[in-house]
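Hello forum,

I keep getting stuck at the same step: I have a sequence, I want structure tokens, and every attempt I make locally crashes halfway through. Rather than fight my setup again tonight, could one of you with a working pipeline run this one for me? It's a single chain of 614 residues.
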Amino acid sequence: MTRRALILGILLEVLIFVWVARAEISGNVYLIGWTLLMPAVALLVALQVANSFLRRSKRIAPLSRAELLCIYLVVSASLPVAGFGMIRFLVLNLGNTFFFSTPENKWGEMQEHLPAWMVPNDPVNAFAGFYRGYSTPPWGDWVVPIVVWSIYIALLVVAGLCFTLLIRRRWIEEERLTFPIAALPMEMTQPGGGFFRSPLLWAGFLLPFIGQSLLALNALFPSVPAFQIKAKWYPVFTSLPWSAFGSIPIGFYPLSIGLAYLVPLDVSFSCWFFFLFTRLEAVFGAMAGYSQGATSSAAARFPYAEEQSAGAWLMLGLLTLWGARAHLRRSWRSPAGIGLIVCSAGAVLFWVLAGMQLWAAVVILGLYGLYLVTGMRIRAEAGGQWIFFPLAWNPNSLMVNTLGTAGLTPATLALTPIMHAFIIEARGHPMPFHLETWKMGEQVDLKHRQMIIAFLIGLAVALPVAFATSLIEWYHSGAAVKAANYPLAKANIAYNDWRNWVNTPRTPDWAGIKGMVAGGGITVLLTFLRGRYLWWPFHPIGYAAANTIIVRAFWLCFFIAWLSKLLLLRYGGARSYRQGLHFFLGIAFGDIMTQAMWTIAGQLLGFEVYQFVS
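Reply #2:
Ran it on my machine without issues. Output:
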């Protein structure tokens, strides 16, 4: 890490925040919700183009590979704080009670439990412009909540950074995990530029470039022919018991296919297999009188896919910690161990000071931490276009479903919609980028101490800039008018959950708990069998991911990549696999760059860009 790389990375980070706010809030095109961030990859390309000019001029030394990756990683680890699971959800979760409250929904009752330092001064007026648009932020009202929430987000991010330092040796040096997300930037920065000279790369690049561009043109000019690659859900069977199989999504997402090629065969196989297997469980349930036509709500939920997924995620997180227990035991007194303890305690204290019960804050944040560990593990082994927690059994719902609401105070329940902003998705947490930095450090001279300092400086700049750019765009567009509706929908879900828990006190959901225990037990069994028998084809990572959005929309992409890799290895050997690597990386690279180029063109020329993902 050099001084010029750090300064350049911070300056570019600020510019990209402006681009991201305009694209995601006003344009409804999501750039930083993916495991490979489009702006960061596009920036890496731009820097390499600039490098080619620097080499010719010979006045300024071109950026080294280590400098390029440092800039890429600092930007990648900073951008997520503005996205889903962070600021993009937080502000709307704060504002709904002040703008959308009606006598019918009774959301206004939540206001009495929110401390004044969490929300803007005069919140009713402050949020009026936020939701209606055509205004500017009242910065004086926002100073305190921006500072307060920046501190909280910093606690979450630094805790994650500390955990990656504790776990890195176990995952990187001992288990040798694949880290599919790290492959593209590493290949793009290979000395000599061999990656960009590969004909297979550009062959792969052309597929999404042509396909996605035709879709973007078709959205502007319907007469342009285009082949739809987004997932559409198709019913497979129409009569019982096979109709219980349900509809399945058929979609061809280039980025997902390209990343899945990098995944070990047993993991990619398990991802699509367990997705389909759960559907077959539903068919079996229909044969046995469960699922369709069942007489009780518990039976109708069979095979408890969400509950199985929650149990698998929790157990996988626990098994991960258990496997690393020796490292954690030796390192808990290190600066990273102490940092993790202090930041975790600070996050709990934050919610206690806000009015939440201590035990509830510990439970929810503990579950969130386990989910984060599992999400990072899935990303390190299965890649994936994005990482999602089990939605219906997110940490808030999991606590209520297992313990009920009898022991929860009104203040604790009222704070759950705010906490929901962070715990519903893992996409906004930079922790995986930190871990991938330590992985890249095996091949590039990335000093740990220098990168930690760079990450902390990047975070210190990112938080105020992310709040500022997001609020400016929201106040201009109107969160309830022209802005993207996905964050608003998530906030509404959180508020409706809270209202339901208040109106109808819950007791433990024993049927769901059994499904969750079953999911955890299956994860333990798969882990045991995989460790005992080398030929065992089923991987617990695939089982955990199969019933979340990580795989649901992309199961066919995993299947295509798995089958391609299997055939290449079987009939062409390792050489054919390596040749195919550039082709599939080209598919992922082409998808990212095509969407980035169309997004930039839309902003410069003032037209609405096609929503490529959903």
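DSSP finds 24 helices and two strands in the chain. If your local run keeps crashing, start a new thread with the error log.
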